Every structure is written in structure tokens, then in C-alpha cells.
Fold these 2 entries.
Entry 1:
Amino acid sequence: MSSSSPALSYTGLFILQALAQGHRFGFDIMEVTKLPSGTIYPALRRLEALELVTSDWEKDLKARKEGRPRRRYYELTRTGKEQLREAETRFRAVGRLFPKRSTA
Amino acid sequence: MAPFTHATLWLISRLIPGPLRPGWLEEWRAEARHGGWRMIPGALPDAWTVRSIARHQASGGRPPGPFHALDQDVRYALRTLGAGRSFALGVIGSLAVGIAATTTAFALVNTTFFRPFPAVHESDELVRVSVGGIKRVYFGTTWDEYQILKKNLSSLEDLSAAYQTRFAVAAGGGTEPRTVDGLVVSGNYFAVLGVRPALGRFFVAAEDETPWARPAAVISHNYWQRHLSGDPAVLQRTLIVNGAELPVIGVAPEGFHGINTGGEIWTTFAISDLAFRDGTGRPVHARRAEPFHTMFVGRLNPSSTPEQAGAQAAVLAHSLTGLRERGFKDVVVRAEPLRVRDPGKDSLRALGFMAVPLIVLAIACVNAANLLLARATRRSTDWLVRLALGASRWRLVRQILVESLLLALAGGALGALLCYWTVGLAQRELQVVVFAQTIAIDVNVLLFTLAAAVMTSLVFGLGPALSVTRAAISRAPEAGRFMRGAFGSRTRSALVMLQAALCLGLLATGAQFTNTLRVSLDDDGLPDAGHFLSASVDVDKLRYTAADADAFYSQLLRGVQDLPMVRSAALVKADVLSGGVGSDLMLRVQVPGEAEPRRGVLGMYAGGELFETLGLPLLRGRTFSPQELRGPPRAVVINQPFAEALGGDALGRTLQIAIRTGPQGMPATPVDVMIVGIVAPTSLERTVLSLPMVFYPAPLVQETALTLLVRFDGGAAAAAGAIRTTVAALDNRVPIERIFTGEELRRRRHTWEFTLVKAISVLGVLSLLLASFGLYGVVSYMVTMRQREIGIRMALGAEGGSVLRLVVRQSIVPVLAGCVLGGAGAVIMAMLLRSRLYGVSPMDPLAFGGAALLLLITMIAASLAPARRASRVDPIQVLRTE
């Protein structure tokens, strides 16, 4: 897989979309996308390796206040956002190919 | 968070490169707080992804090596195997059977050849010292000679001696004595071997010196558990050993039974007169006994090598020769590293032993290869796509090899389990014990299984991998769908042929041996074996006086003859029926007027009605009168072979006979006897009774170990019970050993053959099952691939029946070719084994025909099911899909 034109899988797209909607950590994304953990996390790693996503640790203080370990928060990079927009346009175009289905 | 989740995450995190690990763990712990343990299944693929990304980044885009992205192949292989589960199970099952057979055989070989002695400390430092002739015969040695060896072998820390014997042991409290294998050992025996007691203490070096100063016994862990029910107070108990009361001072560790020889009980040479007898049968201390067979084991000094010990031993031969007389000069003393067996010398035998299981494994491999080939061909479109996308041929070969390796490993794991089960079963049910050791599944065996699996995967994977990828490279995608010949490829036909050949080879060999064995058993020479019983009644262990022993045996014979169910009874020297010419059967026979005594004549005390009991017909003269049977011997009966050796009319001639005693014992006084009768020799195979024999009616010296032979009416159990009662009524301390019916004796005489035949038959049936399963797989595959052709045939008017016949006929052709090949192989095998198996003819048409017929019927049955499927092909359906 060459990094110049990364192919975005459906899973990748779902995750990017979830991130864009403000879901920021693995379990949260799992809940909203209904995808299994074995799919979400590896996909996040790959997106991060492709630099569509970056991650950072939650503030220590906040986690301690809520009495749990720190979370790793993910967010879209600029390329990530661009990719997502591009994909959206493309899939909307695809959607227009099937007008009957889109109304359903 | 549950500790289980915690631990699992920690374990999985081991996959991740060090610097990334803490972060990964922290993230997952946080995530698991939300999702709990059901998150865990995701952690493994995630860790794997993190790992491969890190690796990829570390490699910095170097060109991929030949094993690049192997994990992808593994994952892909797992997925495709999971999808084609019946294929995978077929291959794994076949391989498991083959690997289990080979591993079981190897476990036996491993126990025999490679396993260190259980509980023995640093067995590499042990050397065996032996005294023998130039041609590797072992001589007995005297106590004095042991002392010379012990004193002069300075490269040894110490030298121990062990003499194997059998003891009559009673656990005390009026229990019936039982015959137990035991060892009389030097005081340093356990110290030299470095064995530590499980309980109590062992003998100390000085304990073998003063006779009867501190009589004691050490027992094996097994004896303690089995016969003393693991009594924790065993050290306060005494055992009655050969009539003497011995306190138990220690229990040997579990699994230890001595070196090479098996024993359950040990005593020292200080009380060796319990076991040793002089020429006249009286107890004697080992110091004054005639040479006896002793196992000498010594431990090397830390600074010495086995070679130095060997050199020292060789020099000692000289000082031993001086002590010896007559035929026992030319002594060679050897000191060699101690092994159960010598792997160098015995590796060929081990290989021979493994040959048959290896054939089964080969058949299983052929199965796997065939199935793999079939499946790989079916995936030809897959290969073409991958090639078109730029995959190298190596990558495709690698994919198939990875699949076969995974299959083989699964088969190996299953095979190891099967083997574990088989060995357990064999040990429990058949009491298989090899050289006093239990068969163990140890690291060696498991490594062997692993190696077998890997080798197997190469054997059955490489061929299909190469042939399929070659085809994929050279042909258009459609080419794979058209079949050449019956099986579509010469490779497949050849594989089917090979399998049939191997299978027939095994079956025919098995059938032939079974046949031979049955014939030789039917013609065993012991008439009406079901109504024949032999029981060893041994007063040797009880320190009887000569008069007591004589009285005991004559009362016993009379008592048994008086039993209502007994037709006839006789007393003979032990083991005349199991073969083996002991020196105690050698008779010095001097024919008056001849210069030299006759050579090679055996003599036997034949008390009672021996000839009637054994069914030896009297050819001329008469048998013994009651007066003669009371002794002393004046008349003898000889057998036909000896009568022929004497020449002329033997009846009425006189002879001088005398027992030959050991090399140091004085020859007994000769007795003048007259030949009163001539009996036929027995046709019993391999027993002394077929050699030139002289039977005398009363013992020439005191006999202390006699065997009772009885011919009876009715049931064997009743007769055996009555004999036991008779013996117990005379002296309840006398152990009755080895009560066998004629049938059992016959089986025991042929144990080796029975085991071999059983093993070959079981493996033959296994191979038949494997081969038929293999053919079934191949034919089903072929039918699927040829659906279009069959459809066209049927559209053109072929009937279902003719399609069925066509498929079966074409499947059987390579099987027939295999039969010819396998038949030839079996003939060669029989010729090789002829020396080991009595009376095997290299070509037994019945066995061969039967085996070939069985194979053909099974193979036709195996091809019938897919052929029927072919005959039901709906031409319209097939042609529409094309």
C-alpha cells in the first residue's frame, strides 16, 4: 500500500465521520459506529499511520477527578478533514446514481 | 477492572515493541473501563496492527525480503482454511493418524534408545564394565573378580555390582508369597548411581561385607504402592524374602527399577545365600559361588574419560585370565559409557521398527497432497489474479506452503494427543514396559512430532505448490477447467497409485504374517492345548534340604495325579516348553567303547507321566516302571533324534550319563543306565524337546525348581484351582509361578510375532481407511471438475449407469497399477523379514489375493459415492451455467 493515494475503506470513513462529529476515543467510536473493537482500533492505527488522524492524551487532572485512567483522544488532521470532505462528495455522487434507494 | 482483563491485556501487550507498550496498555485500560472484558477480542488484532506498523516504519521502506508480510499469508491461510472446513478437517485428520502412528513408534524407540535412566544422577558419568569373550558374549564373574575390577579401575570413583534374580516375597501376616524380580547388589550400588531414596535410607558401602550382620531390603516405589498399598509406616514392616525375614529400610524413587534390568526389591551381597546355589543346589554365599552374571556399573572420576576407563579395563583382562580355567580364557574386559542401548548400533533397528508407521504417514501425506492439489487447482483463478496484480511465483508457493504448514501443525497437535492416548492405553491394557521403564512422552517425543509435522508439510505441500503455480503461470484461466485423463493430471494418478501400492504392501504383509502365524500355531505340536496346564513350583526360594525337596515333589506329583480331573501329570525341569537351552540341560553322555563323550545331547528329569502328558508317542520299547520312577536312575528313555545319532539298534544299550555342572564345579559322578524306550521327537517349534534328548526317571542331583505339567479334563480354571489347593496343602509358603494353559504357553512362545502381526494389521487397516478416504476425496474433486464434460456426455445420450461405470473404471486404473507395485514391494519385505519370522514364504497367493481384493473393494466403494453423484448430473443445469 503506497501512502501517496491511500484508499479509504468504509471502516475508515465511518471512523473519520465519527471523529468529525466529536466522538473522540475508541470506545465512544465503537458505540456510535456499532463496529466491533477488533475493527475500530486497528483502523485507528492505520489512519494514524497515514496521518489522517492524530492522537493525544487526555489531561491527567481531569481523568483523576473522574477516577479512571487517561483516555487517548483522537482528532482529524487537515488531510483527514480533506479526505473526509472528498469522500462525502464522492459518495453523495454515488448516491445520486440510485435515486429510488436514496428516497427510501 | 477485573484482574483477568488486566492480565490478558498485559499478555497481549508483549507483542508490541517496547517504547510503544506503556502507551498502548494505558489506552486499553482506559477503554476496557468502558467496554469491560468484551473489548478484549479487539486488543489482539490491534496489538498486531501496532506491531506491524512499527515494523514497517522501522524498515524505512526497504525492499521486502522473501518472508515479508508472512503474517498476511498466515491470516489469509487461516481464513481460507476456516472457509473450507471439511477440506481442513480431512487433511488434519489424515495427518493426525499418520503422525500419531509415527510418534507412538518413536516414543517406544525414544524410551529404548535415548532416555536417560529415571532418578539416576548424571548418567553420562556412568560406565558399564563387562567381562566377556572376544565376540561380545558375556561371561559370568566371581566375587573375587569383582574385587579385582573394583580395586584396579582407578579412573572410576567406585564400581557397583548387581545380580538379577527372582525372590519369593510375602508381605508378612500369612499372605501368599509372590514371585518378584529383584536384585542382589553391592552396598555402594545406590551411591554409585546417585539415586536418592523416596523414603528411609539405602544401603551403605560396608553393608555388603559381613554376612547376615544387618539383613535388609529396599523396595521399589511401585512395589510399595501396589503390594503394600502405599503404607506410610512401611519402614517399620518386614518382608519374608525367600523365607528370611528382612526389614524394609528404604523405598526407591518412583520409576527407578535398576539399570537395564527390572527389579522391585533389592538386597545386598551380605545375604546373597538367599539367592545363590552351589552345584548341588545348596545355598551358598556369592563369595564362594560359581561365576554368576553380574551387571557392573561404575561412576567416572571427574577427571577421567570413558576412554581412559576402557583402556584400564582392557589391561585388567590379563589378571582375570589367570583366575580362570578351561573354555573361559581369552577374557576381554570392557568399560563403555552406559546407555540403555547403543544408538549407533541400534539406529538401523530403530529405523526398521519405524518403517511401517512411516509408511502410514506417507499414505497420510499423499492424502493431504491430493486434497491440497485439488483445492489449489480449484483456486486457479485466484492465483491468476494474484499473479496479474504483481505477486511473484514465490509468494504463491509460500501461500500454499503456509497453509500446508498450518494444517500439518494442527495434525501434529492432534496426532500428539492421539499418541498420548494410545501409549496410555497400551500401558494400561497391555502392560507394555520397555526395559523396566515406562514409555514416556517427553520433550524428545514432542520435538519429534513437531519435526514430523514440518517435514510432512514440506512433503505434501511443495509438490502441489510447484505444480499448481507452474500451471497458473503457463495457462489461461479456463485451462484449469479441462481435464486431461481420468484425474486431470499425471501427478494425481501417480499419487493415487503410490497410495494403493503402500497400502497393499502393508495389507499383504500383515495378511501373510497372520496366515503364517496361524499355520504355525495350528501345527504347534502340543495336541489338545486347551486341556494342558503348566505351573512352576519352585522350592528353591525356601531353603529346603535335599530330602525335604524330594519329599515335597513326590508328594506333589502323587497329589496332583490323584485329582479327579487330572488325566496325567509330570514334573520336568523348568521351561522345557519355552525353548532356551540352559547349561543345566546339558548332559555328559559317554557311550561305552567310544573315546569322547557325545556332544550336544540334552538330558531331562522326566518324573511322572511325561510322554503321555506331552503327547509324545512311544516308538519302541517301554516307558518307566513305577519302581524306576522312584529312582535312583537305572533306565532311560531317549528320543528318536538321539537314537538316530547313536546308530544301530539303540534299545537295550547302556550309557554313562552325568549332569554337567558349571565351569568351577566338579562334574557329578556318572551313572550307568540302560535305554528302555524310544519316543518320537516333538514337533513343538523351538523347544529343546526336538533336540537329541535323554529322559531319566529320577533326579540326578537335587532339583529345586520344577515345573508341573498336567493334562486334565474339564475347565482350566478348576484344574488350576485344584493344583493350587494341592500345593498349599503341602506347604503354603511355596509360590506357584506362571500357571499357563497350553494356549497361553503357545501365545507366550510367539509374543514377538503376535505383537508384530497385531501392529502391522492395525496399521494396515489404518492405511486402508486413509487410502480409501484419499481416493474418495480425489474422485469427488474430479467429478466436480468434470461436471461440464459429464453434462455434455449426458446431453449426447449417455446413461447415468454408463457415467457411473466410467468414473469408477477410471478411478480404479491407478489403484490396479498400485496393486502391482505394492505386491512387488511386499514380496521384497517378506524376503527381508524371512529371517525374523519362522516359515514366512515370500509369496503367499492367498494373503496377496485377499489383501488386493480387500483394497479393490474398499477403493471401489470409496469412488462409488462421488461416481453416483456424477451419474445424477443434470445436463441442462450444467450447460446453462457454463
Entry 2:
Amino acid sequence: MAKSNKPIFWSLFAAGGTLAAFLAPVLVLLFLLLSLGHAPAVLSYAGLHAFAAHWFGKLFLLAVITLFLWHAAHRLRVTVFDFGLRQDSVVAVVVYLIAAAGTITTALCLLRI
Amino acid sequence: MSRKPYIRQVSKTSWYLKQPRYMRYMSREVTCIFIGAFALLMVCAVERLSQGQAAFESFMAAITGPWSFLGLFVILAFAVHNATNWFNVTPKAMPVQIGEEFLNGKYIVGAHYAIWIVASLVVLFFAGVM
């Protein structure tokens, strides 16, 4: 039977889409507050550093960022095809490499906190 | 076998413009650009956080201002668009069967909206906004 790696990328897409549906709007809202210069104390350096220093904070940030990245990467691959760029294998490598780089960067930075 | 097949000319780059249904499909698909951009912004935030207070505060200064606000507002609009569309198809993606009958889709969608609101309020509470 032919093996396909599609289920892996598709499950990351689905999990990321669900997590993004529940959490992306409120997280963007927090960044929107930051852009206004009205950061609550928790979102200061000390507050966020304490959050990321805790194992739960690390897990939360890694899960959110990683799943958002892989969700976006897989959907972007399809979207690029839909917009008329029919180089799927090249596009797939590029978008998944960006997602992988983001995942590794996030994990390494979180370990340093 | 010598008849020439009829091939309808469809533009590869603008096929979705002619039908509202295809436009709605594309509007759902392009949300990934904004979710992806926001994910990369969060990668930057975590990276600067790990580099110390000075690096993090220069990042905070960089995302403060009207242009950041505008960009984040657009991202917020697409994030909400993704959320509502994602929840609205949940009865089709995971129908719930009870005995012979299927649970009415509006309960599945409603449950997702309820969890969405609670999860958002929990995040806002722990972020110290309310």
C-alpha cells in the first residue's frame, strides 16, 4: 500500500485551526492592546518572563505557536496552488521549512528562559 | 477517437472572482496568511523575551503605534473570520449521532461558540485585562 505523509500535515492543520479558532482572536486582541501602549502589568517583561519560566507557560506558548505555524503552512500550500502557482512540491518544502524553523526557534528560546 | 475534446478556458489565477461561493472559499483560505504572520510575530516576541529586558522592551516599542494597530486590527478581523467559519462547519466535520438521530447542528455550533467565549474571557482574566 502506498504510504502518504498527508495525514500528519493534515492533522496538524486541523489541530492548529481549532486552536486558532478558539485562541487567535483573543491573543491578537492582547497584542492590539500592546500596540496602543496600554499593556497590563502581566504583559510586561517581568510578567511574561515569569509565565514563560513556568513549565505550563512554556508548554502553552510552544503549543500555540507551533500549531498556528503548521496550520498556516499547510493551508498556505493549498492557497498558493489555488492562486495559480502550480509548483506544489517546491511550495510544500518552503512553507514546511518555515514552520519547522519557527518551531525550533521557539523551542530553543523557551528553553533559555 | 479523433474528436478534439472541448476544454473550457478557466483562468488559473482569477477563477474564484466570478462566483460568490468561490470568493467565500478564498476568504476562508487567506485567513492562513494572517494566522501565519501572527504566529511569526509571536516567535519574535518569544525570541526577544529570551534575550533579556532591553531586547524585549525594544520589541514592545516597535509594535506600539498606529501602523501596528492597523496591521493587528486586520489580523484580528481575519482571525475572527477563521473562528466563526471553523465553528460553523463543525456539525459537518464531526456530526454527533444519538441512537438513530443526529444531534441538531445548532447545538454543536452553539457549544463551540460558548467554549470560545469562555476561553477568551479566561485568557483576558489571566492577562490582567479584566
